[in-house]
Amino acid sequence: MKNVFIGGAWPYANNSMHIGHLAALLPGDVLARYFRMDGKNVIYVSGSDCHGTPITQRAQSLGVSPEYIAKHYHEEFSKNFNDLFFTYDIYSNTMTLKHKTNVQNILKEINEKGFLFEKTELNDYCPKCQKFVVDREIKGICPVCGSEANGDQCDKCLTSLTPEMLKDKTCKICGTKTILKEDTNLYFKLSAFEDIIKTYLDKNKQSWRPTAINETQKYLNQGLVDRAITRALDWGIELPFDGYKDKRVYVWIDAVLGYLTTCEMACEEKGIEFPEFLKSNDTISYYVHGKDNIVFHTIILPALLDAIDENLNKPQKIVSCEYVNLNNDKMSKSKGNLITVNTLLSNFDPDSIRYFFIFNNPERKDCSFSLEDFVLIHNKHIVGGFGNFANRNLAFLEKKFEGKLPKVNLDESIVKYVTNTYTEIGKLFEAGELKTACTKLYDYIQFANKYYDTNTPWTFAKTDKDKFDEITSNCLYLMANMSNLYSPIMPKGCQKLKDILGVKENDWKPVCYDESVTIENVQVLYQRLKLEDIDMSKGAKDTLNI
Ligand SMILES: [Zn+2]
Ligand SMILES: [Zn+2]
Question: N or C terminus: which one in the chain shows less Cβ crowding within 10 Å?
Fold first, then answer.
């Protein structure tokens, strides 16, 4: 395998990103960085999901265009990812002309193959607005608890609903009673792919997390149902067929096809053949997202890919994750307790944020975020472990030996330990076991600090310079490799340390410090955090100030 495709989920552009999104997306960047170091051709893509009803509703309530909202958050997401050192090859959005053309061409193609069909049914229509109203635009009485509910969900009893289940339906926009009127929509024959998806699941699920397998199985057990690909909206991609002027492409299909658009863009930039890249037996794919997104990647996308061209690789590694809670309580917009990425970036070093959400990643069960935990992990692992190992060695060399480094003189056992660590961590990354990889990396730091403590180099500085040099050489070697091994997770501090030690290589294999460099102006790599200095109200406000 020499090619790796990594698709990060597309965040929905109607609100700031919160820590749940971040925990779901970060593994993608760690994998991309690791595979690049390992010499693979990596294509890592994502973008903002900019169409759909939640955005049009937000736009209506603020009296602005949907495009204004989508652009605002797309720009904010792009900045967030930059500030967190994400290394997407392409971070795009679903509003581009390229994507629009791509989606329209794909729809024409799968229509010619017979995978789309028209269906006329009775749908809710608002006589005053003179348009069909979709689930989120309808209010009515919940059949379960009798409260007022939306067409897609009852917020009171949390039952998932469809508009036909509601009684006394009215249009949310104007309050008028809706009527039923004949409406024609286009459908995708998802049911035709049931056997293909079952075979696909059996072939790939061994490496998936239990929730990904269960969600997919649950969906398959209910039987795959054909899905409407058109929706009565004026915000989205126009249909390339006659008779659909008042409809747009449904956002579920528009967003998942973004992987193809952005992969093609990245291939163009890198001079790689597309779609051959996605067909090759030499390409492995990773799809990274939260659990609410699983079936879009394990059922919908594989079925669409099969419809387009059965030789396109279907998603192989599904790196899904659970939810992030706040102090063991569910986070939600209605509770007002969402912690935004903006708030984290206003208070913390990006390396710490990345480390915390990989070390605590909700890979198999929900994780909880608390400020106390964040401060503790930062101070213990990053400052006390990583930073301290570098600082105690470097500061001593600067103070006692004018910053001159000893000749490279390594213990065989240390070299072996370091070499094995690369193999072990590499395997964990490839298996998507990032959290375990992070724990093993912390073991490495503890090993390094213990080596320093047991060998007490400082006691030989005056009495036995050879012995001091030998121990210090091993410490510097451990440090150089620490900066290499940690760089997929904490890129900024690792690069700083590499620069100090004269490490130029960026490959997934043992590196050594450059004995000709001189250490000067040693400063701590990471500052200790104090709870009282943190202000979580920073960056918490909605950024859409109109
Ligand atoms: Zn209800
Ligand atoms: Zn109306």
Answer: C
Q: What's the 163 CA to ligand 2 centre distance in angstroms?
A: 15
Is the CATH code 2.170.220.10 the one for domain 116-188? Answer: yes
How far is CA 399 from each of CA 20, 419, 454, 458, rounded to the nearest angstrom?
45, 31, 21, 12
* Matching fold, domains 3-114+194-223+251-349 and 370-501: no
Which pair of structure tokens corresponds to residue 458?
């400082």
Q: Per residue in 82-93, pLDDT tens? A: 999 999 999 999
Residues whose beta carbons lie less than 5 angstroms from ion ligand 2: 126, 128-129, 171, 173-174, 176
Which pTM value belongs to this model? 0.94
Counting Cα atoms < 13 Å in the Cβ hemisphere of 334 gives 4
pLDDT value of residue 546:
64
370-501 adopts what CATH topology? Answer: Isoleucyl-tRNA Synthetase; Domain 1 (1.10.730)
How far does residue 154's CA lie from ligand 2's centre (Å)? Answer: 20
Q: What is the pLDDT of residues 141-183, one digit of tens each?
A: 999 999 999 998 888 888 888 899 999 999 998 999 999 999 9
Collapsing DSSP to helix, strand or coil, 324 comes out as: strand
Tokens 């998507």 belong to: 432
* For the CA of 175, the nearest ligand: 2
Alpha helices in 384-464 (DSSP H): 388-401, 412-430, 434-455
534 CA → ligand 1 middle, Å: 40
Q: Any idea which ligand is nearest the CA of 143?
A: 1
Helices (H) and strands (E) in the chain, counts: 19, 16
For domain 3-114+194-223+251-349, give the fold.
Rossmann fold (3.40.50)
**How many angstroms from the chain centroid is the CA of residue 481?**
27
Parallel, antiparallel or unpaired: strands 179-188 and 227-228: antiparallel
Distance of CA 538 to the CA centre of its chain: 23
User: For the purposes of burial, counting CB atoms within 10 Å of the CB of 540, is it exposed (0-12), middle (13-18) or buried (19 or more)?
Assistant: middle
- Ligand 1 ion: Cβ-proximal residues, 5 Å cutoff: 142, 144-145, 154, 156-157
So where are the chain's domains? 3-114+194-223+251-349, 116-188, 370-501
Q: 176 C-alpha vs ligand 2 centroid, how far in Å?
A: 6
